[in-house]
Design goal:
This protein is of the alpha/beta class and about 475 residues long. It contains 16 helices and 15 strands. Bound molecules: thiamine diphosphate and iron/sulfur cluster (SF4).
C-alpha cells in the first residue's frame, strides 16, 4: 500500500531507520500524533514551512524535529517558552511555535510560560494536555483530574493532598498581554476539525505579529490511561472536558490597542556603553571587512577584570564597532571567580558568550585552568606571572606572562593590576583597537572619581615602558 505523503512532514523519519521510515514513535491513538499532523498541514498549507521555528522541549512530543519539515530548536524540559522568547526576539520575521506538554508547561515550566505570556512575547504556544506525564510512564501532572489514577496517584488524585487540577487557560486569561487563548480537543472528528482551525489561527497570529497565543489541546494518552484508543478518546470527552471546558477564552486579535510589545525588539548588540555617555558614543557602523574578535577576561572578583573587559568594549564602541560585554560572576562580592566575555565585530553579533576566545586575559590560576584549553589556534593568552602555568597552552597559542600584580604593587597602587593588563594588551597589540581609544575608555571608567583617571593614565604609561624593557 502506498502511504500518502503528509503535507509539512518529511517524507522519511530516519530516527527509526529505513525499515520504519514512515513510523512515528507515538503509541496508537495518541493525541500527539493527530496534533502533529494538523500542525504540519497548517504550516505547509499557509506557506510558512520555510519561515517557522518550532521549539521542542522534553516530553512525548520531543521528536517533532524528525517529523515537521521546518526549523527546530530543542529546549530543556520546561524551557520551551524561554527558548521561544529568544527565537521570537532574535527572528521577529519568523513564526515561532513552542510545543509543550502539560508536565512541561504546567509543572516544571509554568513560571517560564506564564512570564512569557505576561510579557506578550510574539510566539504561539501549543499546549498538549493529556492529564499526566506521558513520556516518563504516566505520573501525576498538575492537570491530572481529581480521582484520576496515575502511577504516582495509584488510588486516584486526592485533592486534599495534591490540590486541584490546574486550569492553564483560565489562569493565563488573567494576564493582560495574550491576544488569543483557547482550549480545543482531538478526541473525535468534529473536534479535530475545530482544532485544525484553531491551529491555523495561531499560525496567522504569529505570521501577522499580533502577539502571544495559547492553544490548549486535550489529547488522549491511551498507554498511560491504560485504555484502548476509543476509550481514551471517550475519557477526554466525558471526563477531561468536565474539568477543562472547551472554548475560546480570549480573542483580541482585532483589537489594535492590545499590542504591549513593539515588533522591533531592541537587539542586545552594541550595548556595552556603561562608561561612555550614550550620546557621546558614535553610532555603530557596519564594516564587513572587520572580522569578529572574541575576548575572555577572568580572575578573582575585586581584581577589576570586569572593568578591564568593559574598557576594551568601550574602546571598540568609540571605533563604531558592534560590541558586547557579558559578565559572569559567582555569588561573592569579593574573592570569588569573575569573568567576562567581550565580542567586537564589524557586523552584527550573534551570540554574546565566548567559548573559544582569540584573546584570554587571566589573573588567577582557576581561570587559566578553566579557559586556557579553549583558546583558538593562533590566539593569545596573557596571564599574570604569579599564576602557575602547569598546563601548557594549546598548540598554536601564544602565552605571555606579565607581572601585572607585581607592577601595580611596585607603583604603589595594588588595585591597578587591571590597568597593568590593559598596558599588556596595548603592548602586544592584542585588541586591534587604537591606543587612544583604549586610554579614553580607561579614563571614562573613572568618571565618578576623576582624580583616579589621571593616576591610571600615568600608571598605564609607566607599565607600558616597563613592559617594553622586559
Ligand atoms: C529537568 C528534567 N526533569 C525531569 C525530566 C524527566 N521528564 C521527561 S519528560 C517528563 C514529563 C513529560 O510530560 P508532559 O510534558 O506532560 O509531556 P507528555 O510526555 O505527556 O506529552 C519528565 C518529568 C527531564 N527530562 N528533565
Ligand atoms: S505515552 Fe501517551 S503521550 Fe506518549 S506517545 Fe504514548 S500515548 Fe502518546
Amino acid at each position: 500500500m502506498k502511504i500518502l505523503e503528509q503535507k509539512g512532514m518529511y517524507s522519511e523519519f530516519p530516527r527509526c531507520g529505513k525499515a520504519h521510515a514512515r513510523t512515528t514513535h507515538y503509541c496508537p491513538g495518541c493525541g500527539h500524533g493527530i496534533v502533529n499532523k494538523l500542525i504540519a498541514e497548517a504550516c505547509a498549507e499557509m506557506g510558512l514551512q520555510d519561515n517557522t521555528i518550532f521549539v521542542d522541549p522534553v516530553g512525548c512530543g520531543v521528536f517533532t524535529y524528525y517529523y515537521w519539515d521546518a526549523s527546530h530548536i530543542s529546549a530543556a524540559h520546561g524551557r520551551a517558552s524561554a527558548a521561544a522568547t529568544g527565537a521570537a526576539r532574535a527572528r521577529p520575521d519568523a513564526v515561532t511555535i513552542a510545543y509543550q506538554g502539560d508536565g512541561d508547561l504546567g509543572a516544571i515550566g509554568f513560571n517560564n510560560a506564564f512570564q512569557a505570556a505576561s510579557r506578550g512575547e510574539k510566539f504561539g504556544c501549543i499546549f498538549i494536555n493529556n492529564s499526566l506525564y506521558g513520556m516518563t510512564g504516566g505520573q501525576m501532572a498538575p492537570t491530572t483530574l481529581e480521582g484520576e489514577k496515575t502511577t504516582t496517584s495509584p488510588f486516584g488524585r486526592d485533592s486534599s493532598i495534591t490540590g486541584y487540577p490546574l486550569h492553564v487557560c483560565e489562569v493565563f486569561n488573567n494576564l493582560k498581554a495574550p491576544v488569543y487563548i483557547a482550549r480545543v480537543s482531538v478526541a473525535d472528528t468534529k473536534r479535530i476539525m475545530q482544532t485544525k482551525q484553531a491551529i491555523r489561527k495561531v499560525f496567522e497570529i504569529e505570521r501577522d505579529k499580533k502577539g502571544y497565543a495559547l492553544l490548549e489541546i486535550l489529547a488522549p494518552c491511551p498507554t498511560n490511561f491504560k485504555m484502548n484508543a476509543q476509550d481514551a478518546a471517550a475519557f477526554c470527552i466525558n471526563e477531561m472536558e468536565k474539568e477543562f471546558p472547551l472554548g475560546v477564552f480570549r480573542d483580541s486579535t482585532g483589537d489594535e490597542t492590545n499590542r504591549p510589545q513593539s515588533i522591533d525588539v531592541p537587539h542586545f548588540d552594541s550595548c556595552a556603553s556603561l562608561f561612555i555617555e550614550k550620546d557621546s558614543a558614535p553610532p555603530v557602523e557596519d564594516d564587513p571587512a572587520i572580522a569578529e574578535k572574541r575576548f575572555k577576561f577572568a580572575g578573582y572578583g575585586g581584581q577589576g577584570i570586569l572593568s578591564l573587559g568593559l574598557c576594551v568594549a568601550e574602546a571598540a564602541r568609540l571605533e563604531k564597532r558592534h560590541t558586547l560585554w557579558f559578565p559572569s560572576y559567582g555569588p561573592e562580592q569579593r574573592g570569588g571567580s569573575a569573568s567576562c566575555s567581550v565580542v567586537v565585530s564589524g557586523t552584527r553579533i550573534g551570540a554574546p558568550t565566548v567559548e573559544h576566545p582569540d584573546v584570554l586575559v587571566c589573573m588567577n590560576q582557576p581561570s587559566y585552568e578553566r579557559f586556557a584549553p579553549d583558546v583558538k589556534r593562533g590566539g593569545l593568552i596573557i596571564v599574570d606571572e604569579s599564576v602557575p602555568v602547569d598546563i601548557p597552552p594549546p598548540e598554536g597559542v601564544t602565552l605571555k606572562r606579565v607581572p601585572a600584580i607585581r607592577m601595580a604593587e611596585e607603583f604603589g597602587v595594588p588595585k591597578a593590576a587591571n590597568t597593568m593588563m590593559l598596558a599588556a594588551l596595548k603592548a602586544f597589540k592584542a585588541t586591534g583597537l587604537e591606543d587612544g581609544n583604549l586610554e579614553t575608555a580607561l579614563c571614562a571608567s573613572f568618571k565618578k572619581k576623576p582624580q583616579l583617571a589621571d593616576k591610571n593614565r600615568e600608571l598605564l604609561k609607566k607599565a607600558e615602558e616597563k613592559l617594553q624593557n622586559l
